[in-house]
Amino acid sequence: MRNQKTRQVALSGLLFALAMALSFVESTITPLLGLMPGIKIGLSNIVVMYALFFMGFGPALTLAVLKAFFVLLTRGAVAGMLSLCGGLLSLAVMAILYRLPRRPTWFILSVSGSLAHNIGQLLGASVILSSNLALAYAPVLIISGLLMGAATSGSLSALLPALSRLGFKTDPR
């Protein structure tokens, strides 16, 4: 039992490091892609999805909070709050959908999480601005959420066979 706990803590640490590395890569390549402000690919969200689906809600929640704290430290308070709002709503939506008796596909879970992330950020921005003006950006973020959620789903699906060969858990049942 102790060995299992140690393994989970070590894996969580590795996943956090991977999420930070992917976040850095994403912040480097996003400007090169010419995406509109606020639109991100969501590479580090692949790590949170893996944690939720194969480790459970607790480790995924820890990763989402640590990711937001990392954003706070590297990009400031507003970005940190928006990351936390988006990350927590995304995680909650995916966790609820994942627990349904008929589990949705990776694609549906990923796109739903991506859309929820964007909605959480819009709601957080509305609170920060004390105005609903941020909600005017919703159509842009909904379209990007659909596209980036699909890309994130495809990335996770492509990584699962390799993770399985490396000995990582990739069977959600």
What does this 3D model show about the protein?
The chain has helices spanning 2-33, 43-54, 57-75, 77-98, 106-129, 138-165. The protein has 173 residues and is an all-alpha fold. The chain has a single domain (2-165), classed as Arp2/3 complex 21 kDa subunit ARPC3, CATH 1.10.1760. Helix 4 packs antiparallel against helix 5. The model has no long low-confidence stretch (mean pLDDT 89).
List the helices and strands and how they pair.
Elements: H1 2-33, H2 43-54, H3 57-75, H4 77-98, H5 106-129, H6 138-165
Helix pairs in contact: 1-2, 1-3, 2-3, 2-4, 2-6, 3-4, 4-5, 5-6
Main features:
6 helices, 173 residues, Arp2/3 complex 21 kDa subunit ARPC3, mainly alpha, globular
Quickly give the CATH architecture.
Orthogonal Bundle
Helix content: over 70%
Note the quaternary state here.
single chain
Counted by DSSP, the helix tally is 6
E-strand count: 0
Shape: globular
- Total tally of structural domains: 1
Structural class: mainly alpha
- Percent of sequence in beta strands: under 5%
Order of helices and strands: HHHHHH
Here the CATH topology equals Arp2/3 complex 21 kDa subunit ARPC3
End-to-end Cα distance, whole Å, is: 20 Å
CATH class: Mainly Alpha
Radius of gyration from CA coordinates: 16 Å
Q: What is the averaged pLDDT score?
A: 89
Largest sheet: none
Low-confidence runs: none
